[in-house]
Amino acid sequence: MQYDRLQLPANSNDQFIDSVIGTLCLTEGVQTATRVPGSLDVSVQFDEQVTSTDVMRATLKLAGYMLDEKKKSTGCCGACGG
After folding, report:
1. Greater pLDDT, 66 or 28
2. Residues 6+ apart with CB under 8 A from 46
3. At what angle do helices 53-62 and 14-25 cross, to 10 degrees?
4. Alpha-carbon dihedral sign for residues 9, 14, 18, 21
5. What is the chain's alpha carbon radius of gyration, rounded to the nearest angstrom?
6. What is the per-residue DSSP string for 18-72?
7. Is 8:68 a contact under the CB 8 Å cutoff?
8. Could you read off the pLDDT of 8-54 as tens digits, one per residue?
């Protein structure tokens, strides 16, 4: 089992969030999809042998739901020695 959080747009309302969760729950491999209290994120538990975050994002996009892009980490990992 794998977990991920999908960030919804800032203008999301309850109906939009419930629709996104409903679509995710119908996606093969998704075990649970729940709203993260106090945020516009949806927490998703899924079987990584069956689906992935990219597949879930593509499914939502095809259904007409746009998500915020995952924030990119700008921290230095030190691997380059810089």
Report:
1. 28
2. 1, 2, 3, 4, 27, 29, 30, 31, 52, 56
3. 120
4. positive
5. 14
6. HHHHHHHHTSTTEEEEEEPTTSSEEEEEE-TTT--HHHHHHHHHHTT---PPPPP
7. yes
8. 999 999 999 999 999 999 999 999 999 999 899 999 999 999 999 99
Residue 61, both tokens: 């996009």
65 and 36 Cβ atoms separated by less than 8 Å: no
Q: Are strands 30-35 and 2-7 parallel, antiparallel or unpaired?
A: unpaired
Q: Which residues contact 40 (CB under 8 A, 6 or more apart)?
A: 7, 8, 9, 10, 12, 17
pTM of the full structure: 0.79
